[in-house]
Specification:
The complex is a heterodimer of chains A (112) and B (116).
Chain A: E1 4-5, E2 11-14, E3 19-25, E4 32-38, E5 45-50, E6 54-58, E7 61-66, E8 71-76, E9 85-94, E10 97-102, E11 106-111
Parallel strand pairs in A: 2-11
Antiparallel strand pairs in A: 1-3, 3-8, 4-5, 4-9, 6-7, 7-8, 9-10, 9-11
Chain B: E1 5-7, E2 10-13, E3 19-24, E4 31-37, E5 44-50, E6 53-56, E7 65-68, E8 75-79, E9 88-95, E10 106-107, E11 111-115
Parallel strand pairs in B: 2-11
Antiparallel strand pairs in B: 1-3, 3-8, 4-5, 4-9, 5-6, 7-8, 9-10, 9-11
Classes of the chains: A mainly beta (112), B mainly beta (116).
Chain lengths: 112, 116
């Protein structure tokens, strides 16, 4: 049974600070990792993906992957109130299993 | 360009009825996925199509659920004899990749199904 674990939060961060979101996964065969942002009542929006160990930066977002520790994180720099949302971590099992396994999401609140 | 579209946006039905949910993927995307999301949970994988065929239907909860994609584009998720536990948001996603590990998936707005 593939599992993806996230702290449900809420995680409260002051505006302008760095928000750090964490995710662990159980399937060592997982190959690709995704972060989705979901506003209340809306569908998930892809914001980052990472396939290789290390860091990947895109604007204010940095995804970090450590396959040995089965750990993936998302950093949001200069947090804005508009970043307040639920952040979903998703993992692709690889080996032809293309459906994503999602965590329950972390509710992030950016306090003005 | 246009994103993934889903119809209807909301569907209310009575227990025991049959429903069909439609998904129109991003033009040119060969892979199509169905998920469902309950309140407070992440999306749960149901089925994956590569072209016209269901490449992986391991997430379908039981034989009341069925999905088709007859021409490799639009897909319909069909639920027979609906139960109150089927109430959820049904999400469709598409991917430009022909399958494999690196498949960024883009979601539609979802269909909120309520079974009374």
């Amino acid at each position: 049974q593939k599992e993806v674990e996230q702290n449900s939060g809420p995680l409260s961060v002051p505006e302008g600070a760095i928000a750090s979101l964490n995710c662990t996964y159980s399937d060592r065969g997982s190959q690709s990792f995704f972060w989705y942002r979901q506003y209340s009542g809306k569908s998930p929006e892809l914001i980052m993906f990472i396939y290789s160990n290390g860091d990947k930066e895109d604007g204010r977002f940095t995804a970090q992957l450590n396959k040995a520790s089965q750990y993936v994180s998302l950093l949001i720099r200069d947090s804005q109130p508009s970043d307040s949302a639920t952040y979903l971590c998703a993992v692709n099992g690889g080996g032809g299993a293309d459906g994503l396994t999602f965590g329950k999401g972390t509710h992030l609140i950016i306090q003005p | 360009g246009a994103g993934v579209s889903q119809t209807p946006s909301n569907k209310v039905t009575e227990k025991g009825k049959y429903v069909e949910l439609r998904c129109d993927p991003i033009s040119g995307h060969t892979a199509l996925y169905w998920y469902r999301q309950s309140l407070g949970q992440g999306p749960e994988f149901l089925i994956y199509f590569q072209g016209t065929g269901a490449a992986d239907d391991s997430g379908l909860p039981n034989d009341r659920f069925f999905a088709v994609r007859p021409e490799g584009s639009v897909s319909t998720l069909k639920i027979q004899r609906t139960e109150r536990g089927d109430s959820a948001v049904y999400l469709c996603a598409s991917s430009p990749k022909p399958g494999g590990d690196y498949n960024e998936q883009f979601f539609g707005p979802g269909t909120r199904l309520t079974v009374l």
